Amino acid sequence: MRTTLCLGGLALLFLAAVGASIDFLVLDRVQAQVFRETQRVAANWLGSLEPGKVPPPVAKSGVYLIQLVDSRGRVVTASTAAAGRPALSGLRPPLDDRMQDRKECPARGSCLMLAAIRVGPLETREIWHGEPHFVYAGRPEPPILATHRLEVVTAAGVVLAAALFAWANWSVAGRSLSRVEAIRATMAEITGSDLSLRVQEPPGHSEYTLLARTANRTLARLEEAVNQQRRFASTTSHELRTPLTGLRTRLEEAMLYPEDVDPRETIRDALSVTHRLETIVDDLLVLARLRDGDPAAHELIDIGALVREEGAALGGAVPVHVLACRDVYVLGNRIQLIRVVDNLLANARRHARRSVEITAARTADLAVVTVSDDGDGVAPEDRERVFERFVRLDEGRHKEPGGTGLGLAISRDIALAHNGTLEIEDSPRGARFVLRLPLTETNKRPSGPGTPQPATRTPSIEEPS
C-alpha cells in the first residue's frame, strides 16, 4: 500500500508537470499561428492600397474580419463579415511599433484575436494627406483557446495514467509479496516438534527463489541441529543413567544388607563411578564450549616441539616413536592441541600391538600430524562413526571398559575450531589418524625436509619431509 501510494503520487506529480507543459506548448503554438495568419492577411491587403484606390478587403485563411479605420475610429472600408460593425479594436499602434497583436473580448460574444497595423507614413501622406489609418484583421478565438477542453482532457489523462501506474504497481507488488507471504506462512507453521516443512521454491533464479532456497537450507540445518541435540540428549542420558543405576544399586545393597556388603569396597566402587561421571561431565562441557564457538586464546605454537614433548612424556608398555620437524608453527590454543595429541596417542596405544608412530611435518600451507598404530585398524564404514559422541567400537569397549567415547569427538571439534581437519586415512597396517592445521603466514612457504627430532631411537622410521 505504501509503495503504491508513493508511486501513484510521484506519477501524478510527474505527469501533471508533463501535461501542463504540453498544454502550454500547444496553446502557445495555436495562438502564435492565429496571430501570424492575421498579420499576414492584414499586411497583404495593406500592400494592395494605392492613391485614389482602396479596394475592399477579401477574407483569406479563415481571417474574415478585416477593417480599415481612420484616426477618429470610423470604419473606412471592411470585409463582408466586418461590414456594419464598429471598429474591431481601439488599439492604435505607434510609428515605432506599427504591428501589434491583441485579443479583444467584448461584453457579449466570443473573443477576437486580431492584428493591428498602422498604415505606413508614405501611404498615409499620399492617400489620406497625413491622417493616420489603421488596419485590423482578426478572427474569433479558436475553441481550443476559448474553452478549457484541452486542460480537462489532459487532467483526465494524467489522473488515468497515474491510476494505471498505481494499479500496475499494486498488481506486481502483490504478486511479488505473495511469494514472501507464502514463505512467511510456511515458516509460521514450523514448530520445534516438526521441522520437516519446507518452503516452496519459485521457478527461476529471482531473489524470491534465492530467499526460499536459503530458508530451506536454514531449515535443513536447523532440523539437523535439533536432531543432533535430540540424539545427544538421548545418548547422554543413557551413558549417565548406566553408571548412576549401578551406583544406586550398590548403595542400596549396602543399606539393605550391611552384614553381607563390604563398606570399603562399596565406597571404592562409588568413587570409581563418580570419577567416571565426572569425566563424562567434563568432556561434555568441553564439547559444549567447542560447539558453541567460545573463543580461546591463541598463540604461536611449534607443533613439532609440542609433539616431541607429548610423545617423550608418555611411558608404558607400548613405545611411541616420534619424528617431528622443527619450526612447524601454527596459531592455536596449546591446552586444546595437547589434548588432541594426547587423545590420539592414547587411542593408538590402546589398539596397538607393538608400537605407535607419531610424526609432525609441513606441506606448502599445512602442518600435518600423523598418528599410526599397528593394530587391527578401523573399517572404512566406521571411520566417520568413531568421531561421533559416545560411539565406541566393540574392540574399544573390550580394551577400555571405562572409556567415555568422547575423546575423538572432542579432538575433531578442536581441529575444526582451529580451521583444520582430523580424519582417518588408509594405512598398510593398523589405523592412521591425520591432523591437518593451517600454518602461520610466515611459515607458508615450500621448504625442504625439516630436521626431525626423535624422542626415542627408531632407526627404521624414515624422516618426514
UniProtKB/TrEMBL annotation:
Catalytic activity, EC: 2.7.13.3
SUPFAM superfamilies: ATPase domain of HSP90 chaperone/DNA topoisomerase II/histidine kinase (SSF55874), Homodimeric domain of signal transducing histidine kinase (SSF47384)
Cleavable signal peptide: none
Residue ranges crossing the lipid bilayer per the database entry: none
Subcellular location, record wording: Cell membrane
Catalytic activity, reaction form: ATP + protein L-histidine = ADP + protein N-phospho-L-histidine
Keywords: Kinase, Membrane, Phosphoprotein, Transferase, Transmembrane, Transmembrane helix, Two-component regulatory system
Domain HAMP: 174-227
GO cellular component labels: plasma membrane
Classification via InterPro entries: HAMP_dom (IPR003660), HATPase_C_sf (IPR036890), HATPase_dom (IPR003594), His_kinase_dom (IPR005467), HisK_dim/P_dom (IPR003661), HisK_dim/P_sf (IPR036097), Sig_transdc_His_kin-like_C (IPR004358), TCS_sensor_his_kinase (IPR050428)
Source domain of life: Bacteria
Pfam families xrefs: HATPase_c, HisKA
Keyword Cell wall biogenesis/degradation set for record: no
Domain Histidine kinase per the UniProt entry, residue ranges: 235-441
Keyword Membrane: yes
Stretches the record annotates as Disordered: 438-465
Chief location: membrane
Protein name: histidine kinase
